[in-house]
Amino acid sequence: MKRKNKIESPFRYWFIISLFIFITFVLFARAVYIQVINADFYKEQGDMRSVRLIIDSVHRGSIMDRNGEELAISTPVESICAEPRKVLKAEKSDFIALAKTLDISEQKLYSRLSKNIKRNFLYLDRHARMDRVKKIKELSIKGVYTQSEYKRYYPSAEITAHIIGFTNIDDMGQEGIELAYDKILKGNSGKKRVLKDRKRRTVRDIESVTPSRPGTDIYLSIDKRIQYLAHREISTAVKKYGAKAGSLVMLDVKTGEVIAMVGQPSFNPNNRRGMDISTIRNRNVTDSYEPGSTMKVFTIAAGLESEIFTPLTIIDTSPGTFRVGDKSIKDHRNYGSIDLTTIITKSSNIGASKIALALKPKYFYDVLTRFGFGQTTSSGYPGEQAGVLRFYDKWSEQDIAALSFGYGIQITPLKLAQAYSVIANDGIKLPVSFIKTDKSYKGERVISENIARQIRTMLENVVSSGTARKAAIEGYRVLGKTGTTLKYNFEDGEYHDDRYRSLFVGIVPAVNPRFVTVVVVDEPEKSLGYYGGDVAAPIFSRVMEGALRILDVPPDNLNGFNNSIIANVEIEQGLEEY
Predict the structure, then answer these.
(1) pLDDT in tens, 335-344
(2) Which of 58, 49, 56 is nearest to 205 (CA)?
(3) Which residues are identified as catalytic?
(4) Contact between residue 425 and residue 55 where contact means Cβ atoms under 8 Å apart
(5) Contact (CB, 8 A) for 186 and 215
(6) Which of 152, 205, 360, 461 could form a disulfide with 345 if both were Cys (CB 3.0 to 4.6 A apart)?
(7) Quick check: bond before 319 cis, omega within 30?
């Protein structure tokens, strides 16, 4: 028995040794095959499972006001994503927990995943709440993961909503400045290879395939402080007068920059659920109105340039009515024989009509087109309307008379502001800009400096002793013109006799003018007041009083001179050329 064991022991020993050597050789050969002979194949297979080519997202450029205050910024957020096929194979408890976290029914989740089962990627909750993202990460459900993105946030909300606009969920500009400058703001997303673990978490970056370029920040011409003042006053006025809408635009006379632009009703771009789509449009650029008596300034400018009239030319407006064709034009009362300054001061429709009718239609049309009527301001703002100015060969005498005091023509508040800035800027028209600029533009001459100065003198009388006394600002000499128009009913082709639009255009200060501001209040309640001098002019006064102090514009009326006396002196000085 012992002899047999001695024989078998060496055999077993060498067998086991040989087996180990063979296994070691096989493993070594396999390792050589994988690591050397077929390394490329297995590397490719590994990369297919762990290396991914992903979009290197970049944040959208910020939008700032002229002082660097942020008006639109991009904030990092996370979205909950899934691979439908994997999620449908998950444990039932995980599936129930996922549906509960997403706050949807299991049936709805199952249906959504089933419809997209062939897809490798599906958003379950875009720009999810942080608590929801945290819960998803804790659950660690197979096939469910989060992805980093950016979401647009607007710190000033509805105060700057109409200017800034907004982006969609993919961070693409949809309205306003966000749309106009989308290519500059969005930058260029790149591509990079990354190593991910089995839960699709990025372990490390491998290489950049296409370099990314973040969006470029832009600085608007808007001053957030004045924007707030304007928003507050327009909102208050719309509520006070039970108005349908209201708008205000303020331009820098010397640069053409938009300093403030607001409208009511407005919207909150940070929360657009259930939003009324009619509140999105920027009424200052998309809505064109008949400007009413604010148009008389340009009628008188044409009259002065024609040399048929001077500021002291007397026009008979008696007996307070004037027949043109089958239409009767009326003033508030019989002003008798008055000069051009009084026509503006008292806002005489008859006086304006007689000036326009004395001009050749082609000449009158040419003057208006030089001011830019019937054209956009070329500001580049999306949706800007050109307004309406019919060609002169279609004008009747009634049309010319109506045009002289602001009917039969349509312009946007922004265009009206630009036209008045010509008067304020000594006859030079500058391009309108929403972007902060330090450049000085040569501009285009529309009327002579002398005529612009004469009209400014007339406009000062409107505030000191005419229809716009409520536009006065303590310490400053104010120029302005009121307008009150009946609203046109497009359904029956007639004007409403109880619906009005109240307007005021102001220039301040009178000495070395800096700003032009247009105020429009749409459909104020008739019983609460509807004249431009009563409704729109006080809004101008309150906004500009604050703006002038914020911008540290020196007062030009500290001595309390009577504006009308100064105005008469300047008119006499302006007559030296005649």
Answers:
(1) 999 999 999 9
(2) 56
(3) 293
(4) no
(5) yes
(6) 461
(7) yes
